[in-house]
## 1
Amino acid sequence: MNTHDTLLNAALQVLEEEGEAQFSTRSVCAIAKVTAPTLYHHFGSADGLLSAAITEAFTQFLESKRTATQSSDPVMALREGWDDYVRFAAARPRLYAVMMSRVLDDAEIPAAEQAFALLIQRIAAIAAEGRLRPTVEVAADLMWASANAASLLHVTARLRKVAPPTSEVLEQIREGAIRSILNPEQKGRTQ
C-alpha cells in the first residue's frame, strides 16, 4: 500500500474510532507511521485529509451498494438497498455521522450523488411496473428519510443510553416507508 492510501486508511480509522471531534493529524500520523510533513505533502492540510477520507468513505459505501446482490423484484431490491444502507451506518456509526455532516455542509461528493441516483433507479423500476403511488422523487425522499432515521438510531444509541435498534424496529421503519410508496392494490406483490 502506498503512503497516500496508508494515510487515508489511518484517517478513516480515527474517524471510525474517535469521530470528527477527536480527529487530529497527530493521531493519523501515529497510525500511518509517518511524519506530519508527509501528511501535508499528500493532502495539503488536515482538512484536505479529512475531505479525502470522507470522499473515500462515500466511495466505499457506493462500491458496497454496486456489488451487492440485487433481487430481480424491484421492491425487494429496494428493501435490500435500504438494509445495506442501514447496515453501513450500524457498522460505522461515527463515520456515518461525519459523512452526513459533510452532506449537510453542502459538500460536493460524487459518490454520494451516485448512491442517491441508485435509489432513484430502484424506485423508477417500481414505477415502471405501475406499483408506485407517489412520484419517484417523493418516494425517494420517503425512503431516504426512513433509512437515515433508522441509521440515526444506531448513531445516537449511546447518547440515548440504549442498545442499538432491534431488527424488529428497523423492519417496521422500512416496511412503513415501503407501504407508503406502493399502490394499495399492488401490496400483495410485495410480500
Note: The two ends are 46 Å apart (CA to CA).
## 2
Amino acid sequence: MRYDLVIFDNDGVLVDSEPLSNTLLAAYLTELGHPTSYEESLRDYMGAAMHRVHDLVQERTGQRLPDDFDEVFHGRVFAAFERELEPVAGAVDILEKLTADGVPYCVASSGSHERIRVGHRKTGLDRWFEDGRIFSSQDVGRGKPAPDLFLYAAERMGVPPKRCVVVEDSPLGVQAANAAGMDVFGYTAMTPAAKLTGAPQLLSDLGELADLLV
C-alpha cells in the first residue's frame, strides 16, 4: 500500500451535495441583493468554509451578510438533504474495500460537523464514520485552501503528511492538500479536469481509487 491514510473530502466526493448546496447558496445570496448564479457559486465557494462566503461578499460589495446567514442557509440545506441527498456513486464500495483491507481513512471537510453528520445519516454513510474519523474546518483556524485541516486530520490519525493521500473535487481542496505536503487525487465527476491541474492524478469514478492506492 502506497499510503497509510486516505483522507476524503466530503461534499461532492462522498455525498452528492454540491448541486443542492450551491443552488441554494446562489439563490439565497441573490435574494439578499448579491446576484449570484449557480455557476458563480461553484466557482467561488465550492470546497470552501462558510467564512469565505462572508469574506468575498464583504470584499466585493462592502456589505456584511446578515448575522443569521449561516443559520438560515444551513436550515435550507439540511431540509434539502433530507429530501434529496444521495451518496456519490461508488462511495460505499470504496469504503467497504478500505475497511476490508485495513486501510485507515477519514473525512476532512470544509462543512460543519453538523452538516457532515446530517449528510452521512441521510445517505447511510454514518456507519463508516465514527467521531474519530470526522474532521471539519470548525476544528482549525483556517479552512481550505490553507493546509490546516488536512494537517490536523493527519495528526489526529497519527500519520505523517507524506504518507497521506487526499481525494478532492475542488480547486481549493487540491491547493490545501498540496500545501500540506500530501499527495492528492482529483475527482472529476463534477469538476472539469482543467480546474484540478494541481492534482497529478485524476479519477472520474471512485471505483478507480482502489487501483490507484497500490
Note: The chain has a mean pLDDT of 95.
## 3
Amino acid sequence: MNWFLAHEKDLADVFAEAEHIISTFPTPLDHLGLAYLATFDGRKEESTKNYICYLLPYWMKDITELPPESMNKLSLANVFVMLYYFIQDDIMDSAKGEHKDKLPLANLFHMQFLSIYREMFPAGSPNQHLLQFRCISA
C-alpha cells in the first residue's frame, strides 16, 4: 500500500484543486461536478478508485525527474480526463439517455484537461507533439 500512502498528500492537493476549479463552474454544473468528482475521490473510502489515473505521474517520478508541481499538474489533468471519459462511458452505456444532463459537464472537464496540458506544453515547446497526440487520442 506504500504505492498509495507515499502520495497521500499529493493526492489531497490534487483533489482539492479539482474541487476548487469545479466550484467555479456555472450553476448547476458546479454542484453536479463536485458530486461526480466525489464518486471517484481516491481519498474517500466509499469512492470508486481509479488509482492509475491520478497516481501515474507520481509512480513515474524516478524516470521523469519532473518537479513536484509538474507531477501535480499532470495528475490534475488526469483527474479531469478521467471524469470526462467516465461521463462519456455513462452516456454510451445508457439506454434511455439517463446521463445526458452530464454532457455539458463532460465538456467542461475536457476543457480543463486541455487547458492544463496547453499550459504545460505550449506551442513550440519540444514536447508540444505530446499534447497533440494526447488531444487526438482523447
Note: The radius of gyration is 15 Å.
## 4
Amino acid sequence: MADFYKEDLSYIHDAGYSDYALNASTGILTTLSQNNIQNGLIVDLGCGSGISTLEFIKARYQVLGVDISEAMIASARIRVPSADFRVASLFQIEIPTCKVVTAIGECLNYLFDPDNNEQLLVQLFKRIYQALEPGGVFIFDIAEPGQIDKNDEQHFTEGNNWLVLVEKEENAEKSILTRRIITLRKVDEHYRRDDEVHRLQLYRSTDIAHKLRRIGFKVQTMRSYGRYQLPKAHAAFIAFKPSASD
C-alpha cells in the first residue's frame, strides 16, 4: 500500500490538485439535494486527503473515508477530525449500510491492487448495491480510452517549494494508461526527489453503465459534476438503487 501516493506526492496532490475533488463534491451535494437525500452516511471511496469528505461533513452528512494511501489518510484525519477514516483497498473493505457511496477522481481505474480486474470491479458494484439503502445512490467517475493527445505525453507543474513531472503512455490494445511521476519537494534547504508509477485500466462509459444496470441500478451518465466539466475522456455516473415505490 505504501508504494502509491507516498508522503511527497500526497502533499503535492493536496496542495496543487484539490480543485477536482472540491468541484466534484459541490456537484454531488447538489445532486443529493435534488434527490432529497439530506442526511445519513456517505462512504467516500478513494477519499484522498479529505477534501471531498470535508465538504460532505460541512453539509451535515456522516462520512466514512477510505483510501489505500497511508499518507493521504494521515492528511485527511488532520483536515476532518470528525470523520471516520480507514487505510484500505476500496476493493476489499467491507462497506457498511449507507445512503450514498462516492468514488471521485478515477479511483476505480487505478491498478493499485495486483488482482484488480473487471470481475473485481463488478463485485465491488454488487457490494455497493447491497450496502445502499433503497433509494440510495452511487456517484463516481472513470477515465476512458483516449487520454493522451500528441502534445500531452509529458508535462510538469510547479508550486510553492515543489515540482511534479508526469510522463504518460497509453496502451490502446490493452486500454491501460501508465503515468510515470517524478516529484521534487523542498525539505529544509534541499529538494527531495521521489518516483512513482501509476497504472490505470481504462473503461468505456457504455460498458460501465451496462454492468451497473445488470446489477439493478438505474443509471445516468454525465460529463460533468453539476457545472464542473470533467476532463477529456472522463465520464461520471449517478447510479440509483430503486426504492420500494419504484
Note: The chain has two domains: 7-144+202-241, 154-200.
